[in-house]
Amino acid sequence: MTVQDLETFYDYNYWANKKILPTISQLTTEEFTQPVAGGYGSIRNTMVHLLSTEWGWLSRCGGHPRGASLKAEDYPTVEPLLKDWKKVERYMREFLSQLEDEELNHTIEYRGEGDKKRAMPLGELLHHSIIHGAHHRGQVAILLRELGYAPGSFDILFYYAEKHGVPAW
Predict the structure, then answer these.
(1) Which pLDDT band holds residue 133 (cuts at 50, 70, 90)?
(2) N-term to C-term CA, the chain
(3) What is the dihedral of CA 108, 14, 93, 91, to 10 degrees?
(4) Which pTM was predicted?
(5) Which of 22, 42, 90, 167 has the fewest CB atoms within 10 Å, measured from its CB?
(6) How many domains does the chain have?
(7) Could you tell me which PANTHER family the record lists for this protein (predicted)?
(8) Residue 116 CA: distances (Å) to CA of 20, 106, 108, 119
């Protein structure tokens, strides 16, 4: 894996966010915060978890510090979430632009479940962050559909097709 690979995957990650966030912006505050289903219970909770986790991995890897995990209750409406997504995207792109390929193999120590010490290469942790985002965006898409919204397609195939100016199918 190279820094350029990560930049491409984060480009996809933010492209996909830009596809789903406008649909989330259409939600009423009640729809945004109401328990629907899934592991985090609401669209807001899932999106805050996703944002907090991406920022958390960035911070652990030496990027802009996050501090404590983000709390869903600090995002009563969609607007502050959108603002923080833009900020974290800027932090991540800046961090990636300063990395060299060799640094991706640098071992990062972090605390895992039960506060147990863990260690993995920086590149793998950032790659995990991207896959984690795709997983939870998929969950949010299902929740949006349950509420009657159509978030559209944000599969990586559509990203590549758009990037190359060709039809996906």
Answers:
(1) very high
(2) 28
(3) -80
(4) 0.93
(5) 167
(6) 1
(7) DAMAGE-INDUCIBLE PROTEIN DINB, SLR1116 PROTEIN
(8) 35, 20, 14, 10
3-state SS class at 26: coil
Q: Does 169 fall in a domain?
A: no
Residue 35 identity (one-letter amino acid): P
Tokens 């219970």 map to which residue?
41
Q: Which two tokens stand for residue 9?
A: 């995957």
Average pLDDT for 127-150: 93
Report yes or no: 10 and 96 within 8 Å, Cβ to Cβ.
Answer: yes
Segment 103-118 shows an average pLDDT of 92
Whole-angstrom Cα distance, residue 70 to residue 53? 9
Closest CA to 58 of 32, 93, 33: 93
Which helix (H) or strand (E) segment holds residue 9: the answer is helix 3-25
Contact 157/166 with Cβ under 8 angstroms?
A: no
Per-residue pLDDT at 104 exceeds 90: yes
Query: For residue 39, which of 169, 143, 144, 164 has the smallest C-alpha distance?
Result: 143
Q: What is the DSSP letter of 74?
A: G
The answer to whether position 125 is within a domain reads yes
Residue 142 lies in a domain: yes
CA 134 to chain centre: 7
Domain containing residue 52: 3-164
Q: How confident is the model at residue 169 (pLDDT cuts 50, 70, 90)?
A: confident
CATH code for the domain in which residue 17 is found: 1.20.120.450
